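Sample intake sheet
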Amino acid sequence: MGPDYILETRGLTREFSGFVAVKDVDLKVRSGSIHGLIGPNGAGKTTMFNMLTKFLLPSSGSIFYKGSDITGERPAQVARRGLVRSFQISSTFPHMTVLENVRIALQRKMGRAFQFWRSERTLDHLHSAAIQILETVELADHAKLNAVELPYGRKRALELATTLALEPELVLLDEPTQGMAHEDVGRVVALIKKFAQGRTVLMVEHNLSVVEDLCDRITVLQRGQVLAEGSYPQVSGNPQVLEAYVGVADE
């Protein structure tokens, strides 16, 4: 594995009762980049994410993170290495405040995530760190609101804030703009650009204008295999990619 790549898969394959969802995928994600993983319905993107974050074991093949083989590791082990998945299922507590949600994530990083019996005063040292993170994602003015009160786009920003609190090196974003209004999409794209500074992002995204705006490199999957790879102009002009997307609705 080259020193420029933070994540690499070799021959990654996953079968389900004879159905091959992902087949022989070789993926290389360069450190410090935003790498897009796209493809039509049933292409295998979610299965790939599940294997990379260890929620599914591959049927064959290997996964390397920063040069180490993590194929057989558990989800908590890869998270401790700095590989974190966000936007899959909301990781926020709806009836806790925005500030408390980020503070819980900071406690998790310290190995004290669920020590709820601690007094408020003992957590004061995390307050300024939580506010700083909220300022990064433009949520500091909403710190005292319960998470359930936030509009949908702001909830996505809070999820990004809780991810930031874990200090990840590589973040897997699973459809970060899905279901958003146009104005929210623009806000979240801007936040992802800010968030990506100093770290690596691998993202699944159906909105191709978002992919074009954000991604340095793109891998296109079709029927579980790599169809094309390159910059957005390269993959968007590929006849096979165009054919794969013709008449295909969003997942």
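Comment: The first strand starts at residue 5 and ends at 16. The two ends are 33 Å apart (CA to CA).
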